[in-house]
Structures are given as structure tokens and as C-alpha cells.
């Protein structure tokens, strides 16, 4: 089995599909959690406190990190192999549609943008929340408690350049998911003439919901930072 997964193109694509599915599920959970910060900052902080540096949260973080690393490594390997075998034709799929052509040919580029956004996100949030708890601290470098995620969101997205960077990151993620979500089903043989339009529609819906969910938090908190009345301060 290990030889099949590591030596064959289909095995590598299967690993990409499994890790991709896992990451999409996590992103959906993370988006749902973030939307809570709009509805009730107090409830969001309760979720942050529940997760924190508890053993189950640390185990989940380790599994998530492993999933990202494996997914990225196999993405690089498959891209290099595809370039060698097909020249400029990358991430070749059975069904080709103009609407997914650009995303399918630039998945690795999008992946690098997404990875860069993740590094920034880890610096802005994980390093000031869970890492602070792991190190035994009670306040982060900004003076917030490690479970005060709402204040950290408000501070981060009161700065316009972070708003722009995060929106670009989410847009790259949208492009990546519009191809990636249906492609992982195509790998297991679901993308026939009947299922391809359905899977493409599902991929667009999932990608759009994720983009809108994350973007809403960024935009709402930025608007509240420049309009105190919008945050109920008046």
C-alpha cells in the first residue's frame, strides 16, 4: 500500500484528495467559528478558551499541521512530475472546462499564496493565542489574554493593510477550492458526464461560502474600527 501511495501517480493524487478533504472540513469549521465573532464576541472568546492549549486542541493542531505539510509536499511532487511528463500542462484532468482552466493550471502558485497567508495568520493569531498558553503566559505581546480572540481580531483588522492582505488570501483560496474540491472527487472517479456539472456546482458553492464567511469577519471588524457607532459604541 505504501508503495502504491508513494510511487504511483494515482496514489499520490489519492493522498492529495484525502488531505484536501480533511483541510476543507477544517476550513469550514474555522469559518463557522469566526462568524461567531460577528454575532457574539463573548461566545467567540468562549470557544477560544475551550480550545486553547488543551490536549485535544494541541492534538488537532498537530494533525492539521501534518495534513498541510503532506498536502503541500505532494502538490509540489505532482506538479514537477506533470511538468516533466506534459510540459506546461499541469494538474491534467479528464474533463476540461474554460471556467477552471486558469485555476487548474496555477494550483501550485495559488498554493504558495495560501501558504504565505497561513504563515501570516499563524503570526497574527496562533502565536498570540495558543502558543502563549503553551509557553505558560497569561497575556500576549499586545496585552490581550490568549483567549481574547475577539479583541485580537478587532486589533488586526483595524489596520487596512491586513484587510487587503487577508482578502487577497481568501480570494486565492476561493480559486484554489473551485478546482480542488471537485478535483478530489474526480480522482476517485466521480467526475463523469453526469457528475461533473454537479461537482463543479458544489465546488463553487463551497468555495464561495468559505470566501464570504471569512471575508465578512474581516470587513465587519474593519468597518467597526472606522465607525464606532457601527460597533454599538454610540
Task: Supply the number of helical segments.
Answer: 10
Q: What is the count of β-strands?
A: 0
- Major sheet size, sense and barrel closure: none
Separation of the first and last Cα atoms: 63 Å
Radius of gyration: 20 Å
Give the helix/strand class: mainly alpha
**What proportion of the residues is helical, as a percent range?**
over 70%
Beta-strand residue fraction: under 5%
Order of helices and strands: HHHHHHHHHH
Could you name the ranges where pLDDT drops below 50 across 5 or more consecutive residues? 88-100
Average predicted local confidence, pLDDT: 84
Shape: globular
Structure description:
With 234 residues, the chain is an all-alpha fold. The protein has ten helices and no strands. It has helices spanning 2-7, 9-39, 41-51, 55-86, 98-105, 107-124, 130-134, 149-156, 160-187, 195-226. Helix 6 (107-124) crosses helix 9.
Characteristics of this structure?
about 75% helix, mainly alpha, about 0% strand, about 230 residues, 10 helices, globular
Q: Concise description?
A:
With 234 residues, this protein is mainly α. The protein contains 10 helices and no strands.
Strand-helix topology:
Layout: H1 2-7, H2 9-39, H3 41-51, H4 55-86, H5 98-105, H6 107-124, H7 130-134, H8 149-156, H9 160-187, H10 195-226
Amino acid at each position: 500500500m505504501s508503495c502504491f501511495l508513494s510511487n504511483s501517480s494515482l496514489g499520490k493524487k489519492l493522498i492529495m484528495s484525502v488531505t484536501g478533504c480533511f483541510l476543507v472540513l477544517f476550513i469550514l469549521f474555522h469559518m463557522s467559528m469566526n462568524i461567531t465573532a460577528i454575532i457574539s464576541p463573548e461566545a467567540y472568546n468562549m470557544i477560544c478558551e475551550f480550545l486553547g492549549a488543551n490536549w485535544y486542541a494541541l492534538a488537532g493542531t498537530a494533525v492539521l499541521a501534518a495534513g498541510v505539510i503532506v498536502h503541500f509536499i505532494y502538490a509540489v511532487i505532482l506538479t514537477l512530475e506533470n511538468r516533466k511528463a506534459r510540459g506546461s500542462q499541469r494538474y491534467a484532468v479528464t474533463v476540461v472546462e474554460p471556467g477552471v482552466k486558469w485555476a487548474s493550471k496555477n494550483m501550485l502558485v495559488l498554493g504558495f499564496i495560501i501558504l504565505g497567508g497561513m504563515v501570516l495568520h499563524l503570526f497574527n493569531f496562533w502565536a498570540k493565542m495558543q502558543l502563549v498558553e503553551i509557553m505558560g503566559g497569561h497575556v500576549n505581546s499586545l496585552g490581550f489574554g490568549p483567549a481574547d480572540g475577539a479583541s485580537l481580531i478587532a486589533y488586526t483588522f483595524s489596520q487596512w493593510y491586513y484587510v487587503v492582505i487577508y482578502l487577497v488570501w481568501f480570494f486565492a483560496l476561493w480559486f484554489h477550492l473551485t478546482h480542488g474540491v471537485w478535483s478530489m472527487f474526480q480522482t476517485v472517479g466521480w467526475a463523469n458526464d453526469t457528475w461533473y456539472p454537479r461537482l463543479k456546482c458544489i465546488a463553487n458553492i463551497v468555495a464561495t461560502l468559505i470566501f464570504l464567511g471569512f471575508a465578512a469577519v474581516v470587513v465587519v471588524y474593519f468597518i467597526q474600527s472606522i465607525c464606532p457607532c457601527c460597533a454599538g459604541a454610540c
